[in-house]
Amino acid sequence: MARKRSRAVSLKRPCSPVEYISTQAEAAATDLFSAVVYEESSGVFTVSEGPALRSEGSTSLTLPAEWQGQKVHVYAFFQTSDQDSASTSQYLGEMTVL
Fold it and tell me: What is the mean pLDDT of residues 34-55?
């Protein structure tokens, strides 16, 4: 059985120290960044929960290697560090996996 290779994709966006402060009442710098990435042609999605924190301002995700060059839809949300509650998800848009 051939081993599937994964490919990392960067979702970096410069973030000033104040930008991670949210208008959501219970947001904290220690919240975990989470993302759902959906590859439409295969109907497959991945879920990434952490380890990036809200205060880091950027992260990279590892996606299936066969998605290289494919367009994916990306949704993001934050969870409390104890994963007891989460924010409303935000659609970040369609992106091409590099």
Answer: 92
